[in-house]
Amino acid sequence: MIAVLEREELALLALFAEGLPLDIIARRLELSDRTVRRRMRSICDRLGLATPIQAVVWAARRGLV
Q1: Cα–Cα distance measured from residue 16 to residue 9, given in angstroms and rounded to the nearest whole number
Q2: pTM reported for the whole predicted model
Q3: What confidence tens digit (pLDDT) does each residue in 4-26 have?
Q4: What is the CA angle 18-54-61, rounded to 5?
C-alpha cells in the first residue's frame, strides 16, 4: 500500500520535524492544539505507525520533509 499525504499533512510533519511544540505548530497553521493532535494521530493511523516521530522518520526517508 502506498500512503499519500496531503500538502497540509506534509506541512504539519515538516513543522513537527523542526522540533516545534504543538502550540507553536497550531499557531503557525492557524489551527487549535486539539486539531493538530487529531491530524497527527490521523497521519500515524493511515501510515500504520505508533508515534508522530515515526511519521516524521517515514516522511524524511522518502524526502518529503
Answers
A1: 11
A2: 0.86
A3: 789 999 999 999 999 999 999 99
A4: 75
